[in-house]
């Protein structure tokens, strides 16, 4: 009998310059230990900070798992809270990845829209989570940074903007632990799923 469980894919990034331990992947692993709910299959994946690999991995995650929701998590040195990204950009990718490369045209998907917004209302999620009795708070952003975070988010939004999200987390200890970040991620993801079910 096919599983009736919802499938949620959550990705974190590997190390890159200035982040030898990437808070996003540590927090995603902590989320996997915490779990979501019994009726949700949580699949996690670590993504290298590399444009050409992202272009292969993200479509394959969609194809392999056919998720109800895919959430990419990245670290931002300027984030103070969980930052829910509402949209992603298709151009302006001129920062080099861990292999010293950037897209030849500085573009994510040739000929596609300049910007794609997620159908998930991030402000609604933000308001709901900020009213929960957890330590970490959330904010909404419209600029995911024109690096691998923005790039990976655009890839997923281009595949299915109804089911894609991106969350920036602060570096570990600034001021939250991986456990506190994971608790926040769990609250955000469950709020997104609730909204999507309406």
TrEMBL record:
CDD domains: Peptidase_C15 (cd00501). GO terms for cellular component: cytosol. GO terms for molecular function: pyroglutamyl-peptidase activity. GO terms for biological process: proteolysis. Keywords: Cytoplasm, Hydrolase, Protease, Thiol protease. Gene3D superfamilies: Peptidase C15, pyroglutamyl peptidase I-like. Pfam families: Peptidase_C15. Belongs to the peptidase C15 family. This is Pyroglutamyl-peptidase I. It comes from Patella caerulea. The lineage of its organism: Eukaryota, Metazoa, Spiralia, Lophotrochozoa, Mollusca.
């Amino acid at each position: 009998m096919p599983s009736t469980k919802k499938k949620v894919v959550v990705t974190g990034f590997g190390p890159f310059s200035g982040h030898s331990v990437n808070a996003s992947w540590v927090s995603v692993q902590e989320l996997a230990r915490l779990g979501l709910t019994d009726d949700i299959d949580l699949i996690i994946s670590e993504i290298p900070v590399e444009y050409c690999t992202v272009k292969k991995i993200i479509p394959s995650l969609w194809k392999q798992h056919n998720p109800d929701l895919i959430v990419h998590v990245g670290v931002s040195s300027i984030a103070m809270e969980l930052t829910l990204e509402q949209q992603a950009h298709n151009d302006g990718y001129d920062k080099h990845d861990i292999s010293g490369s950037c897209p030849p045209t500085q573009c994510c998907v040739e000929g596609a829209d300049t910007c794609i917004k997620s159908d998930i209302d991030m402000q609604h999620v933000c308001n709901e989570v900020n009213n929960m009795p957890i330590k970490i708070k959330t904010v909404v952003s419209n600029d995911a940074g024109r690096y691998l975070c923005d790039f990976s988010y655009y890839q997923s939004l281009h595949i299915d903007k109804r089911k894609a999200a991106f969350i920036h987390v602060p570096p570990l200890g600034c001021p939250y632990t991986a456990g506190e970040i994971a608790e926040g991620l769990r609250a955000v993801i469950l709020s997104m799923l609730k909204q999507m079910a309406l």
